[in-house]
Structure formats: C-alpha cells, structure tokens
C-alpha cells in the first residue's frame, strides 16, 4: 500500500476601493445669524451596489 498527499494551492486577489468626500459651508448674516452645513459621502466596493 502507498499513501500520498495532494496539495492544491490557489491564489485569489480582489481589489477593494474605499473613497470618501466631505464638504462644509459656513454662512453668517449681519453678525446675528450663523449657519453651518456639512455633507459626507462614503463608499466601499466591498459593499456592492
């Protein structure tokens, strides 16, 4: 009887892209009214569409 081992090796590469954007606006009117607004958007290709 003989015994042997079979070894299989696979290499799989996947590209994941992560991106984010942030914007902010400040507005003042007559030194009495002040408004600040912001927007943030994030995305990651690993999450799918």
Features of the shown structure:
49 residues, mainly beta
Overall pLDDT, averaged?
85
* CA-based gyration radius: 27 Å
Give the strand order of the largest sheet, numbering strands 1, 2, ... along the chain.
Answer: 1-2
Derived structural class: mainly beta
Q: Can you describe this structure?
A:
With 49 residues, the chain is an all-beta fold. It has a domain at 18-47. The chain contains no helices and two strands. The protein has strands at residues 18-29, 33-44. A two-stranded antiparallel ribbon has the order 1-2. A hairpin with a 3-residue loop joins strand 1 (18-29) and strand 2. The model has no long low-confidence stretch (mean pLDDT 85).
Short description:
By secondary structure, this protein is mainly β.
Secondary structure blueprint with pairings:
Elements: E1 18-29, E2 33-44
Antiparallel strand pairs: 1-2
